[in-house]
Design goal:
Layout: H1 3-17, H2 23-38, E1 40-48, E2 55-60, H3 66-73, E3 76-78, H4 88-96, E4 100-102, E5 124-131, E6 134-144, H5 150-170
Helix pairs in contact: 1-2, 1-5, 2-5
């Protein structure tokens, strides 16, 4: 089965379970599927809190000791800064609205290092989850089996377009009206 077929099956599965699942349950599915489809060791799935603009990681790989604490409280919350940005490489796609992959993390101008005790991340891919021009969240992957390419970004953008529908429904209680990206063949 092709990646496009995998994404179609995943989209149908998500839409079928959307009415009977919690945001955590469906976000965990996005974490699992993103790691599988992108062949990545780690993943982070977040939404933007509509009340205060914080980035809230709801499903994530455990890369620090703090992740256990975040798991217990049900989220990893990254507060929006006073200037309205999130900062750093993790916040880059939220700040710019752009998808990216980085093969040498230390070379990216937004990178400022990993927190103490964080497992190494050798490559990084991040896409904003958007409905139109509105940024609703973010999906991040790291440590792929093979180097990330632009094709991986296109795949992640497709996954994010599906997650946008979920967030609009479960977080914003609205429908996301947009045209699917449709990957280049």
């Amino acid at each position: 089965m092709s990646v496009e077929d995998d994404l179609d099956v995943f989209h149908m599965k998500v839409m079928a379970m959307l009415h009977d699942c919690t945001l955590k349950e469906i976000s965990d599915l996005f974490l699992f599927e993103t790691k599988k489809i992108l062949k990545s060791e780690s993943c982070y799935v977040a939404f933007i809190d509509p009340k205060n603009g914080d980035s809230v990681g709801i499903s994530f790989s455990h890369l620090t000791e703090s992740c256990q604490m975040y798991e217990k409280i049900g989220e990893a919350r990254f507060k929006v800064l006073k200037d309205g940005s999130y900062g750093g490489l993790l916040g880059y796609s939220l700040d710019t609205g752009e998808s990216l992959y980085v093969q040498d993390i230390s070379s990216h101008p937004a990178a400022h290092g990993l927190p103490p005790g964080h497992e190494p991340v050798n490559q990084f891919l991040s896409v904003p989850v958007k409905c139109g021009n509105e940024i609703l969240g973010q999906i991040v992957a790291g440590n792929p089996e093979k180097d990330y390419t632009q094709k991986h970004v296109e795949i992640a953008d497709e996954i994010a377009s599906i997650y946008a529908k979920v967030l609009k429904k479960l977080v914003y209680n609205e429908e996301c009206d947009f045209i699917a990206l449709k990957m280049k063949k």
